[in-house]
């Protein structure tokens, strides 16, 4: 299927590895010019080189997108994107009683205010041009809060609520805003968490890894490639009637019917 987005321009945040990279790869395969950002120059440069091999124009921007300066640098590299993929690593886990107000501020800044700022800077141009696709990568915790991840739960749910009305307004100009809620995917972050769990229990990594996979109805973790393919479809010309939705991609892990 031709997604109808060849030649479009996209910003993909936190795209040097993991789910962000999966999104950038999928868009590049569709002929989308991608501007990618991350804080680590070496990994970002390597990813940009891989993406450029597909034949599309790739612009890597080394920055911290949670800062105003970082966002300015990113938007200077791609001032009029047709597609925006908001993505950022979640705040650290912990116990609610140990979280300080500064912890909450950092979580909200990184996982709520940063994507809102990028949406505000780009959505109205998209509406004027008559095409736009915005995808916010959040978390399965939007549907079911995850213990010890209260910082993430709150900030990501705040983002979801903040853009819900805008998603219904922008669609009249062929601009959609949707959320993708990933469950467990085979990323560095997940492997790092598994390693910590194994060390805490004093068991082998493989033991915890197998247990975590068994807890997923699919019996495995998702891949960044299949995640990126779903996001690319939501960004396609065929997905213009989908907006304001929050799509779980979790291998069946969510236990509810709605």
Main beta-sheet annotation: 7 strands, parallel
The outline comes out as: globular
Strand fraction? 5-15%
Secondary-structure element pattern, one letter each: EHEHEHEHEHHEHHHE
Q: How would you portray this structure in words?
A:
By secondary structure, the protein is of the alpha/beta class. The chain has helices spanning 18-29, 41-52, 68-77, 101-129, 150-162, 164-170, 188-201, 205-214, 224-234; strands at 9-12, 33-38, 58-62, 83-86, 132-137, 175-182, 246-249. It has a seven-stranded parallel beta sheet, with helices on both faces. Helix 1 (18-29) packs across helix 9 and helix 7 packs across helix 8 (205-214). The longest helix is centred in the middle third of the chain and has 29 residues, at 101-129.
Write a concise keyword list for the protein shown above.
alpha/beta, 9 helices, globular
Short overview:
The protein is an alpha/beta fold.
Describe the protein's topology.
Layout: E1 9-12, H1 18-29, E2 33-38, H2 41-52, E3 58-62, H3 68-77, E4 83-86, H4 101-129, E5 132-137, H5 150-162, H6 164-170, E6 175-182, H7 188-201, H8 205-214, H9 224-234, E7 246-249
Parallel strand pairs: 1-2, 1-4, 2-3, 4-5, 5-6, 6-7
Helix pairs in contact: 1-9, 4-5, 7-8
């Amino acid at each position: 299927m031709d997604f109808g987005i060849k030649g479009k321009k996209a910003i993909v945040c936190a795209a040097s590895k993991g789910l962000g990279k999966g999104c950038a790869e999928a868009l590049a395969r569709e002929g989308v010019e991608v501007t990618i950002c991350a804080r680590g120059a070496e990994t970002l440069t390597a990813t940009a080189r891989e993406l450029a091999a597909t034949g599309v124009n790739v612009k890597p921007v080394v920055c911290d997108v949670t800062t105003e300066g970082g966002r300015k640098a990113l938007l200077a590299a791609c001032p009029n994107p047709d597609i925006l993929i908001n993505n950022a690593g979640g705040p650290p886990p912990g116990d609610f009683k140990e979280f300080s107000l500064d912890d909450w501020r950092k979580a909200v800044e990184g996982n709520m205010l940063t994507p809102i700022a990028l949406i505000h800077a780009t959505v109205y141009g998209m509406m004027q041009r008559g095409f736009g696709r915005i995808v916010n990568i959040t978390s399965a915790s939007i549907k079911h809060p995850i213990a010890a991840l209260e910082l993430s739960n709150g900030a990501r749910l705040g983002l979801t609520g903040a853009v819900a009305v805008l998603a219904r307004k922008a669609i009249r100009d062929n601009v959609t805003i949707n959320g993708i809620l990933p469950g467990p995917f085979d990323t560095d972050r997940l492997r790092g968490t598994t390693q910590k769990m194994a060390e805490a229990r004093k068991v082998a990594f493989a033991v915890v890894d197998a247990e975590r996979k068994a807890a997923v109805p699919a019996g495995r973790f998702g891949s960044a490639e299949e995640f990126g393919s779903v996001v690319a479809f939501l960004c396609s010309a065929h997905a213009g009637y989908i907006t304001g939705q929050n799509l779980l991609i979790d291998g069946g892990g969510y236990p509810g019917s709605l």
